[in-house]
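#struct-pred

JT: dropping the chains for the assembly here, can someone run the whole complex?
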Amino acid sequence: MKNRPLLSARRVSKSFGGVQALVDASIEIMEGEILGVIGPNGAGKSTLAGVIVGSLRPDRGQIIFRDSDITKYSRRRRAELGIAHTHQIPRVFPSLTVRENMSLACSRGLGGGTEDGLHETAERLGLGGLLSLKASQLSHGQMRLLEIGMALLSSPRLLVMDEPTQGLAGGEVASLSSILRGLAGKLAVVLIDHRVDFVVSLSERVAVMNLGRFVAVGAARGRDVGLAIEEAYLRWA
Amino acid sequence: MRPRLSNLAPLVIPLLLAAAYPLLPEYPKALAARIMTLSIYSYGYAVCFHMIGVMSLGHAALFAAGMYGAGLYTIHVSPDPLMALAAGIASAVSLSLLLGGLAARVRGPYLMIATLLASQTIYLAALHFNEVTGGEQGLVLEREATLVGVFRPLMAEADARYFISLLTLSAAVAGVSLLSASRLGKLFLALRDDEEKLESLGYNTSLLKLTAFSVSGVLSGASGALQALLYSYVGAGYVGIFNSVEPVLWTLVGGPYVQVGPFLGCLLVNVLGDLARGLPRGHVLVVGVGLVAFSFATGRLGWVYRLLGVSRGREE
Ligand SMILES: Nc1ncnc2c1ncn2[C@@H]1O[C@H](COP(=O)(O)OP(=O)(O)OP(=O)(O)O)[C@@H](O)[C@H]1O
Ligand SMILES: [Mg+2]
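RK: done, full complex below.
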């Protein structure tokens, strides 16, 4: 099944006032693959995430999910199709406990999240001992892990992760790596991150973005991608 | 997220009120009955204000729908107080769907204006159709057709008012307490915290708002209906802007603890208001400042509420 695109963005453009955040950007995400997305600040990565999950409407272009055009679908309909999102700045429900946050996510998306699954996910993310804590009491990194846990519990087909390692400690990054590795083949992940080694080690393919465009897409450890990363960051720096 | 028996701890309030009954002299007893009736409205308002974080300035319309629904049913359909109560609640719930529909479309200050306009429309309609509603003067219901009339063979009017409002208040406190501990209550809080995130988890946030508004409608409408059925009077005086703003004050003063705050706020504002009536202007100002100070303090009273086993609704 790996050779069928699960989602494709076709010539998607989006601007904010005068800023062109996405310019005719096209990309395909295959069933079960982890696609890394790398690019300097302002490259358009979060905007790409937004048009995929439905929090942003593209000005032009289409989003196709499993052969249907979902460009006009609301965020909620996309969630029901199994598209989940973790935000660059983590978003959880601060007045609810960790357990309640996770439990609200359980029954959503394609469903299937159970109480056992909740405990297991919490353990794996190192949140096992914090289940009764209010989410507002968590550290930034713990909030991020909680949001990731919620996304996983909704059993998504496609998970769009916007900078999941930002603000995580080394150990937390390692356990996130092993969780993502464990998911390989079960769902597709769009993995946006600035940690090149983290992205490259987890992804089969990497897409490099700069100034709203994909400047290279290819094998994670391939030469094209390596050069493009170097150039994008150099030019930006 | 299943409600437990311990979630009913806030029922101590009605229990205390029941215990206070034999001790209260006539006037405070009447005032307490009045406050209990109104605090059901206060709970109704808190469902929107504290649980889903939506500020409406049109809730007087829901109170009014309950009041006119019950009153007009009694006059024109049948003098059956329980059916009249149901009719009042039903009209308030229908109207709450309208306000909830507004809340699903517009937010913040726009919603405040939209709900204000909606309730002003009801107010003007109540004035305009004065042959039906009695306009500003209002209508006096026949005592025999109301709840106090039904209970007259058993007890004095003042007692009937006290106990019927106490009973209804207990139901409201129990309902709101169970709701806030339930999964739906958690969804309400999540909606207040981050509507977009909730939507992106696949929840229908418009439907959640409609649900919250209809719960609010049940409570506000019941309060309005009790006004008609316990005091045998309905009138446009209960529909103005002031009556939409009052519950804002009550729930602010009472603080974010939705199980007990709405009652405490309503109690405090009305008792102080009652005391202030005989005072010169300057003293009224002092009372006002005291209220503001208290409403700040309620945010700091977490430990008191925790001792009482009450969980907070709103996170600062
Ligand atoms: N809501 C918005 N309003 C105005 N401009 C925006 C908005 N969102 C993004 N932009 C602009 O669009 C461009 C792309 O932003 P985007 O957030 O997609 O970049 P990014 O690749 O995610 O960057 P970062 O690595 O800093 O997260 C930037 O120039 C940004 O300033
Ligand atoms: Mg970004």
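JT: nice. Residues A 45-46, 88, 162 surround magnesium ion (ligand 2) (CB under 6 Å). Strands of chain B lie at 139-140, 233-234.
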